Amino acid sequence: MVAATSQKIRIDCACHRSTAIKTGWERAMMENDELDQLHDSVNKDAIFAKKSSGIQSELPISLKRGGKTRPWRSLYSMINSILQSYGKLSEILTEGNKAYIVAGMDLNLLAIVTKFF
User: Fold this and answer.
1) Which residues, 6 or more positions from 39, have their beta carbon under 8 angstroms from its beta carbon?
2) Is 67 helix (H, G, I), strand (E, B) or coil?
3) Taking burial as the number of CB atoms within 10 A of a residue's CB, which of 30, 46, 67, 90 is the most buried?
């Protein structure tokens, strides 16, 4: 770090970037019910798929869950995995009379949020 900063070159700290994105996302969810519902829905879908046998193996991308070490990357992975697997997931859940799990999910909002991250 000393050698890198001796030339007065600014280096972004990944920890601060992660904290800023996580804080911004949490504040956005507090102020926007639609984002809060989306986050809750995506999280529940990922939990359901992981607990149900056989669903993950049928999806183009296995559904991810959020993590604590890099929350911004985990949020992106979780939301992007739902977006990429939505068609097949919806098909599987409809066949099993569980379409309500993904019924209220806004694909346009998922795509917008994925671009944000």
Assistant:
1) 29, 75
2) coil
3) 46
The tally of CA atoms less than 13 A away on the side-chain side of residue 4 is 5
Give residue 41's Cα distance to chain centre.
10
Which amino acid belongs to residue 70? R
Q: Give the separation between CA 117 and CA 93, rounded to whole angstroms.
A: 27
pTM for the complete prediction?
Answer: 0.62
d(CA 14, CA 22) in angstroms, rounded, equals 12
The predicted-structure confidence for 16-55, as pLDDT tens digits, reads as follows 556 676 777 778 778 878 877 877 888 888 888 888 778 8
CB-side exposure of 18: number of CA atoms within 13 Å? 12
Q: Compute CA distances 22 → 10, 68, 69, 97, whole Å.
A: 22, 10, 11, 35
Residue 80 CB neighbour total at 10 angstroms: 18
At 7, which amino acid appears?
Q
How confident is the model over 71-87, as a mean pLDDT? 78
